[in-house]
Amino acid sequence: MASVQPTTKHTAVAEVNAPSSTSFDYDVAIVGGGIVGATLAAALKDTNLRVVVIEAQPRSVAVAKGQAYAIHLSSSRIYQGIGVWEAIAPQVEYFSQVHLSDGNCPSVVKFKPRDLGTPVLGYVAEHRVLLKELLQFLETCEHVDWCCPAQVTTTHYHPHGVEVQLAPSSAGVEAAHRHEVESLPQTLNVRMLVAADGSRSQVRQQAGITTQGWDYWQSCLVATIAPEKFHNHIAYERFWPSGPFAILPIANRQCRIVWTAPHAQAQALLELEEDQFLDLLQQRYGSQMGKLSLVGHRFLFPAKWMHSTQYTGHRLALVGDAAHTCHPVGGQGLNLGIRDAAALAQVLHVAHQAGQDIGSVQVLRQYQRWRRRQNWLALGFTDILNRVFSNRWFLVVQGRRLGLRILQWIAPLRILALRFMAGLSGRLPNLAQPK
Ligand SMILES: Cc1cc2nc3c(=O)[nH]c(=O)nc-3n(C[C@H](O)[C@H](O)[C@H](O)COP(=O)(O)OP(=O)(O)OC[C@H]3O[C@@H](n4cnc5c(N)ncnc54)[C@H](O)[C@@H]3O)c2cc1C
């Protein structure tokens, strides 16, 4: 792995203004206080490392995002290990079955808890629940400060640390923690930086780390539905030539739908009158849950695939969407980010205990080796799944339907697929080990 080399400007600053190894404001600065950034801060709770999270939005705005996510068993275990799951669990819905099918083809692959030997297969959590509980948990962590709304403007990488310039903000720093930050600092000297600032990561771009990827021809329409009949804790993923259609059970007997379609079609669905939209939805949804009604607004997200060529640089690590973004099919994106956060926290903890420099290339390379290949497999899986199922080519249709039947008949294959989709295969962080 190549380190991110400081530019000429950075080198000049490094000579004049480099922080000495003992004068750091914090050990770790996490840029981006979304779910992944907040999870990393929480996972570092027992490390004695001083952590600051720099978030561009006020807390109330960051929490208020209307998204909901399928949460893998590996992610719920990570939150159990951190100690925040007890607060999250009563506010999320579980699913005990996943039904996978291809358009109108009658054969359905049914994944059940006995395939994994667990009571449930996963959960669906709303963004506001996860982030609110993580923020409340962080208030009890003495070593974490939360800087918001604040934005990183420039970063200067020195041999022993990173100098981070923050944009002044009229709202200043939210003093939500025991260690209150009285006013927004203009400059922070930190031992290392973590980019958790989403798919357009400014930190990644400033460090010169390149990405590979593409925009899909599809967008995802997301909405909340109140069905007449109870969802029975079943999650559905049905593939149509236009794209996957997912139904996820959420709290209050409601369901979340993720309806993928080519951009123009998805835009038209967004603009339809509610009655017309519900008619079309009923056709796609089927009659198993009776009459449907819409709760709140519909949202549209363009689907894209992106993978950073490096996860680490000189005193820098990327986590979550800053490192990778994938098609929403299979609900992988956030779960991969949660595992990144747990893995990076583990690598930093071990290095810190051993007296190593946590920002050194040798330490950070362990994180990159661990996570990049595993994420690549999951990203590849979502891409292949979407491409194989989103078409009408005769041979491909026959092949994929045969594949689904094989999954239905051969339990070991079904279990293998389920373990992969539930984030239980490959090397897991200690926090994700069964309790
Ligand atoms: C339709 C759809 C459905 C999905 N469903 C699922 C699912 O079921 N399961 C799943 O696992 N994943 C799902 N995903 C993927 C998931 O939404 C993302 O992977 C996840 O939200 C990424 O979280 P993050 O914390 O890495 O990034 P973000 O949520 O983008 O958070 C980044 C944070 O950084 C802050 N920030 C940005 N720039 C700066 C800056 N310069 N300075 C300071 N702060 C900054 C932002 O304000 C934000 O709070 C879905 C995605 C879509 C589009």
TrEMBL record:
InterPro entries: FAD-bd (IPR002938), FAD/NAD-bd_sf (IPR036188), Ubi_Hdrlase_CS (IPR018168), UbiH/COQ6 (IPR010971), UbiH/COQ6_monooxygenase (IPR051205). GO terms for molecular function: FAD binding; monooxygenase activity; oxidoreductase activity, acting on paired donors, with incorporation or reduction of molecular oxygen. One of its GO terms (biological process) is ubiquinone biosynthetic process. Keywords: FAD, Flavoprotein, Monooxygenase, Oxidoreductase. The keyword Ribonucleoprotein does not apply. Residues 25-378 form the FAD-binding domain. Its cofactor is FAD. GO terms for cellular component: ubiquinone biosynthesis complex. PROSITE patterns: UBIH. The keyword Transcription regulation does not apply. Belongs to the UbiH/COQ6 family. PANTHER family: UBIQUINONE BIOSYNTHESIS MONOOXYGENASE COQ6, MITOCHONDRIAL. This is 2-octaprenyl-6-methoxyphenyl hydroxylase.
